[in-house]
Each structure stands twice: as C-alpha cells, then as structure tokens.
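Hello support,

Our group uses your service weekly, and this is the first time we've seen a run hang past the timeout. The protein is ABC transporter ATP-binding protein. I'm not sure whether the cause is the sequence or the server load. Input pasted verbatim:
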Amino acid sequence: MSEQTENNHVVLEARGVTKHFAVRRTSRDLVAGRRRTVHAVDDVSLQLRRGTVTALVGESGSGKSTVARLLAQLYPLTGGEIHLGGQAVKAGRGRSFRSYVRRVQLIFQDPFASLNPVHTVRYHLTRALKIHGRAGSGDEELEQNLTALLNRVQLTPPHQYLDKFPHELSGGQRQRVAIARALGADPQVLLADEPVSMLDVSIRLGVLNLLRDLKDRMHLAILYITHDIASARYFADSTLVMYAGRIVEGGDSETVTQRPAHPYTQLLIASAPDPDRVADEEEQEETGSGEPPSLIDPPAGCRFHPRCPKAMERCRTELPPRFDLADGQWAACWLYDGTAGDTTTGDHEKKVAAK
Ligand code: SF4
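Update from on-call engineer: The timeout came from a worker crash unrelated to the input. Re-ran successfully.
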C-alpha cells in the first residue's frame, strides 16, 4: 500500500455512538418513581484515518472524554457501533480486549497519575512490551526495544531515563514516557485525552510536535481531545466540535477555526485567549455566553438554544440535522437549512444543502 493510500485509510470509526449513564436513585427519585439518566454522548459519528490528527473540541462536560473511553472500549455502548479496520468490534474482556488495545491506545491527561510512582521507566515500558508480545527473545533484545521506544519519544540518551522514577521526571518527560508505553503496543490509533492540558505552557508545544512526528513517521491515526480550539488549528488536520454530548460542527481545522459556522464554535473561538482581541459586551451579545446545560435533562431541540443569540422558534423543539457547507465543512444548525430561507450568518455566505 502506498504512503498516500495508507494515510487516507479509515482505521477506527464510530457510527451513531451513544452512551447514557444511569444516575444513582435518591430517596426523592424513589418516592417519585423516576429513573434519571445522564445523556453523556448522543449519536456521535467520526472517522479516524491513518496519518492524520482529528481534534475533538469542546468545553468541560461536553462528553469528549467519554467518546475517547468509548473508542477505547472502556465502557459498553448504549447504542451505535465501533468499527476497527472495517469490522464492527465489541471488545469485551480478556483476549479480545487485549487484541483491541494492541491496536488502539489511550493516553491520559495526567501523566503522573497514569504512571505508578513506585516503579521505574524501565518497569513501565518492559511491562507494556511483554503484555503486547514485543519484548524480544532475550535481555539484549529487550534492552534494544526499550532504547528504541525512548528514542522514538525523544528522551535521549535513553540510559539516562530508563532507571528513573516518575517523580524524578518533569511533567513533559512523564507524558513522553506515557506515550512510549502506548507505543510499546505498536498501535494504529492513539486516543490522546487532553494530553498537554496539565503541562506547563512552555513544554506543551514540544509534546504536540512529538505527536505530530509520530503521526507522520508511524502513520498513526490520532484523536486529539482538547478544550483549546486554538491548538486544534495548529495541530489537527480536521476538527470536530462537541456540545452537550453531540457533535455540532466538523471540517478541516483551518476552515472550522477561521470560518466557524455553528454559533457554538463561534462562541468557543470568541472565548479563546487572544491578546489582540478583548471581547467587548457587543461581541459577547453576538456570540452568546452562559453555562452548558445539565446532561440529565438536556434541552429539547438544539441543545445550544438556551445560549444561542441566533436561536429561532424551531430551535427549541426540533433537533437540527447535519447540513453540508462548502469545502467539506458541515454544521448541525437550522441557520443552514436551505428551506428556512436564511442561509447566511454573519460573513458566512455559503450555499448549503441539507444532507
Ligand atoms: Fe442556534 Fe438554532 Fe443553530 Fe442551535 S440550531 S445553534 S439554537 S441557530
């Protein structure tokens, strides 16, 4: 397979993935005879392709980390399907789960919590290699494999790091060890859940550049979960925007971040720190404000309508489908319904067609 083809190849796909969590019943629930449910993720579809980074952007509580855990098969699905290499998968436990995680690895936000403080780097990496059958046939081969992993995450010279404990490393070095451990499985997909948000600003760029280098050299498909839409523009090839459990906009990162179509994406961009632009009251009125809704009883219709400055009557009752815009961009927003007679918003003069 050529490099070009390999890079366009869909490795992991979510189709209509839904996850609802039952809320523990209180005495009031028992008296009222009700069962409450958190609608954490509803009808999420996405494709991760080899050699590309897909950003999933949203505020805290939008469901983006739950999507990563569903793709990692850590939770059973309430609805929908996950396909790996074109095959529907339900990893379960035991051997089938190990076989799945060999191809799909999850990197957590907090590298300190994800590494055991009483074990060295050597221990963590050796264990990963052994679990995935890649330790080699003897001590010498194991040592070569350990060295190769540390070289790959640019912790060099490797012998300076192998026998260190997590507390002897900086936050950025710990995250590199966590990435090396994930690479021990020789995966096709990395699910990176806010991989730099707990690191000092000065070292975030280095870790993002490392992930980009791995994407290019190993043709990894990377899901980059973040609340920072500005970093999505820098790092990701395509960007999906999530609000209150649903994906509301998607497209290539440059288009989504420079010409956001959905009012929520516009709000996210207006809220991102930018020294050249201090949002004034008028701008806030244009883009909206407020808090995300409770996912126990999410708003009917468009979930963004209580905060949306452009909300129309139908937004309160009808769930907007996905409308295709130009250049592969799409938005789930009634503003783009050709039949509504209003196909423009702000400087978005785009002809749209309902999918
Ligand atoms: Fe705003 Fe309506 Fe679009 Fe939702 S569907 S984002 S409420 S205009």
